């Protein structure tokens, strides 16, 4: 809620006491109305025994009619690389300022004939290959993006680019930097509730299209990329989504937005002698990204740890039991602050922000893909993932890789 007296933004965070009630019976998840259910307890971590002192509360039982697991990932980046030194030729900044305040050293930017759908399809192909799933076996493609090549959505275009002869359902999810996390939970909902088997979740954004490249307060932060994960149905006892926690608070929109505006002049209409006031409407276009960096920073370091703690509590897992902390890659200082609050040591924190900047919906699957392919994240390991950004929307999920 906005604090009217101070003018400071303070997103409302549900009180955990109400959000995570003590165990009173079987909690009713969102998927309960679709199909026969089995009760399963928060899956134990296969290779680790949580320390006895770490959690005093019992695991929260979950109703899971159908399990889902992450079986493949892929990513793609544009070829054009822009370093901090390159940026300092356009705006009054320096590598020292950017890397100290954000941890970012370089970013990739779509250029020339590159487009976001191609990039997303590249990432998707790699995820399908790793999962050993044919494009024709896909049931659903979720394209999480706020910067599609077409305002009406890019999901069907990616279905076409992948050559899916079976025409699986494909649509977009718009939730800025939280987009991938929401896509992941949506994929699980479709699998658990609707019987889908193979769901491709793509996070892809080209924020460079909406950045004011003369504004040093914002242009230094963002980059373009695509990442994808294949989520597959499995037996409930193999379920790889232990818990999640999601939030939105529209009162923070003013601190991070790319809003629509009517163009000042429209020659075609000005000469049309229209007799109805304000009709036809003038052509509209999107303004550049507007951000209050300090407020967004404060929101992230406050709300993200709370969300992860809530998801961990729902999963019945202590923070000490997770193998990896994987946050939306926005600012290294945000990542460090959240890790410190959760007491997760830096060697268990995934970060590739230095090379790519904030790639919005792509950042989590891009970082996951690099960590998996480099051998860092191994099958069976547990990840606490969290996204946050414009909307405002934020949330977290406790997942198992593979
Ligand atoms: N290079 C050099 N100086 C810069 C600069 C740049 N790129 N950007 C801002 N400055 C200057 C400011 O003008 C200001 O100068 P002043 O003290 O003379 O007025 C000074 O540096 C401090 O600016 P400030 O905005 O207070 O810096 P900050 O420490 O808050 O860092 C951000 C700015 C944007 C890096 C930081 O607020 C941030 O990362 N916020 C979160 C943004 C985010 O993650 N958004 C996406 C979420 S999904």
UniProtKB/TrEMBL annotation:
Its EC number is 2.3.1.180. Residues 312-401 form the Beta-ketoacyl-[acyl-carrier-protein] synthase III C-terminal domain. It comes from the Eukaryota. One of its GO terms (molecular function) is 3-oxoacyl-[acyl-carrier-protein] synthase activity. Residues 171-250 form the Beta-ketoacyl-[acyl-carrier-protein] synthase III N-terminal domain. InterPro entries: ACP_syn_III_C, ACP_syn_III_N, FabH, Thiolase-like. It catalyses: malonyl-[ACP] + acetyl-CoA + H(+) = 3-oxobutanoyl-[ACP] + CO2 + CoA. Gene3D superfamilies: 3.40.47.10. Pathway: Lipid metabolism; fatty acid biosynthesis. GO terms for biological process: fatty acid biosynthetic process. One of its GO terms (cellular component) is chloroplast. Keywords: Fatty acid biosynthesis, Fatty acid metabolism, Lipid biosynthesis, Lipid metabolism, Transferase. Catalyzes the condensation reaction of fatty acid synthesis by the addition to an acyl acceptor of two carbons from malonyl-ACP. KAS III catalyzes the first condensation reaction which initiates fatty acid synthesis and may therefore play a role in governing the total rate of fatty acid production. Possesses both acetoacetyl-ACP synthase and acetyl transacylase activities. PANTHER family: 3-OXOACYL-[ACYL-CARRIER-PROTEIN] SYNTHASE, BETA-KETOACYL-[ACYL-CARRIER-PROTEIN] SYNTHASE III, CHLOROPLASTIC. Belongs to the thiolase-like superfamily. FabH family. This is beta-ketoacyl-[acyl-carrier-protein] synthase III. The lineage of its organism: Eukaryota, Viridiplantae, Streptophyta, Embryophyta, Tracheophyta.
């Amino acid at each position: 809620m906005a604090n009217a007296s101070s003018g400071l933004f303070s997103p409302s965070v549900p009180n955990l006491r109400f959000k995570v009630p003590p165990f009173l019976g079987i909690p009713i998840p969102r998927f309960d109305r679709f199909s026969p259910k089995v009760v399963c307890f928060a899956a134990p971590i296969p290779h680790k025994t949580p320390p006895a002192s770490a959690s005093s509360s019992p695991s929260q039982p979950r109703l899971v009619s159908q399990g889902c697991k992450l079986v493949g990932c892929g990513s793609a980046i544009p070829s054009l690389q822009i370093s901090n030194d390159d940026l300092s030729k356009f705006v009054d900044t320096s590598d020292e300022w950017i890397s100290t305040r954000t941890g970012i050293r370089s970013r990739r930017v779509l250029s020339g004939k590159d487009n976001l759908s191609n990039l997303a399809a590249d990432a998707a192909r790699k995820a399908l290959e790793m999962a050993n799933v044919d494009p024709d076996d896909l049931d659903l493609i979720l394209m999480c993006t706020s910067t599609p090549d077409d305002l009406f959505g890019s999901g069907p275009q990616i279905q076409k680019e992948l050559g899916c002869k079976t025409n699986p359902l494909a649509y977009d999810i718009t939730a800025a930097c939280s987009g991938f996390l929401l896509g992941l939970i949506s994929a699980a909902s479709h699998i658990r509730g609707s019987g889908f088997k193979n769901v491709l979740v793509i996070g892809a954004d080209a924020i460079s299209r909406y950045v004011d490249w003369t504004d040093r307060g914002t242009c230094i932060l963002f980059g373009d990329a695509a990442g994808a994960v294949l989520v597959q149905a499995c037996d409930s006892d193999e379920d790889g989504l232990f818990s999640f926690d999601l939030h939105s608070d529209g009162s923070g929109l003013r601190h991070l937005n790319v809003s629509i505006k009517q163009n000042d002049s429209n020659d075609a209409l000005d000469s049309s002698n229209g007799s109805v006031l304000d009709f036809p409407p003038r052509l509209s276009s999107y303004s550049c990204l507007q951000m209050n960096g300090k407020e967004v920073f404060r929101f992230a370091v406050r709300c993200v740890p709370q969300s992860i703690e809530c998801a961990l509590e729902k999963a019945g897992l202590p923070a000490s039991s997770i193998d990896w902390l994987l946050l939306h890659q926005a600012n290294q200082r945000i990542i460090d602050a959240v890790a410190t609050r959760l007491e997760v040591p830096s060697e268990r924190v995934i970060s590739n922000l230095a090379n790519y900047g904030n790639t919005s919906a792509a950042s989590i699957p891009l970082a996951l893909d690099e960590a998996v392919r480099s051998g860092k994240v191994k099958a069976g390991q547990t990840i606490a993932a969290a996204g946050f950004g414009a909307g405002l929307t934020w949330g977290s999920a406790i997942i198992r890789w593979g």
